[in-house]
Write a structure and sequence with these properties.
By secondary structure, the protein is of the alpha/beta class. It contains eleven helices and eight strands. The chain has two domains: 145 residues, 3-Layer(aba) Sandwich (Rossmann fold); 84 residues. The radius of gyration is 19 Å and the shape is elongated.
């Protein structure tokens, strides 16, 4: 069938887009911080929500932290400290609470990991409509739960990791490699992801049409189409996506 707006391919992010932890870490973290005496207002939570997305977008901060904190425990302790600062803690509060919160979360936060609602039905529909489908992920190793990958791989024409091309989103090279695999032009491709900093900025810089999956309404005015659930991508494609 004819492709909407000449779209021929749809690429997806993996973590947080096709599958996610339940409950989300940020909500549990804020609740735990409150139990340790740090009052977190709704406004502080709203402003802090995008921070984790930014941090894990190959930001200057995480690149420096990986050098400064080479062992896993110290890295995650520093991450919790940074997250406390993001929700309004003072420097001394964050330094004092970080190891306690890290231990608390390690002992009590055991989320389930599942494919998000509507994903498989949407992917099946897109395949039937003739779209080329691909995964472009910053993972450099297989998913911890093999059932997630096994359940999803059958829908995709390719599965591209950062390790495959020595390039991580938002670097445009990983997106350009995906375009080569799908044999499509950038303007013929939609990229769906949940992280504005890696997925929207990166795919747009590569000439693709970004769509942000923002279930919780984290990002204000991302400058691209936004969906709150996976089936909404079908409506977007039928109505036509705006040109870049």
């Amino acid at each position: 069938m004819p492709m909407a707006n000449e779209i021929r391919a749809i690429f997806y992010d993996l973590d947080g887009t096709l599958h996610a932890d339940n409950p989300p870490q940020f909500g549990v973290f804020c609740q735990a911080a409150g139990e340790f005496g740090l009052k977190v207002s709704a406004e502080a939570r709203r402003k802090a929500a995008p921070w984790e997305y930014y941090y894990f977008s190959q930001s200057a901060e995480i690149l420096a932290d990986r050098v400064a904190y080479p062992d896993e425990m110290s890295f995650w302790n520093n991450f919790v400290r940074r997250q406390l600062l993001a929700i309004g803690a003072r420097e001394e509060q964050a330094a004092e609470l970080a190891p306690r919160l890290l231990q608390y979360l390690g002992e009590r936060y055991h989320p389930t990991d599942a494919i998000l609602p509507g994903v498989e039905q949407v992917l099946e529909t897109l395949r039937k409509r003739g779209y080329r489908l691909g995964v472009v992920t910053n993972r450099d190793k297989p998913h911890e739960d093999p059932a997630i990958e096994t359940g999803l791989r059958k829908y995709f024409d390719f599965w591209l990791t950062a390790d495959d091309v020595s390039s991580s989103k938002p670097d445009r090279r990983i997106f350009e490699h995906a375009l080569q695999l799908a044999s499509v032009e950038p303007g013929q491709c939609v990229y769906v992801g949940d992280n504005y900093y890696t997925d929207v900025i990166g795919s747009r810089n590569a000439g693709m049409r970004p769509v942000l999956l923002d279930i919780e309404g984290v990002f204000e005015e991302p400058g691209c189409p936004v969906i709150r659930s996976h089936p909404q991508i079908l409506d977007l494609l039928e109505k036509g996506l705006p040109a870049l």
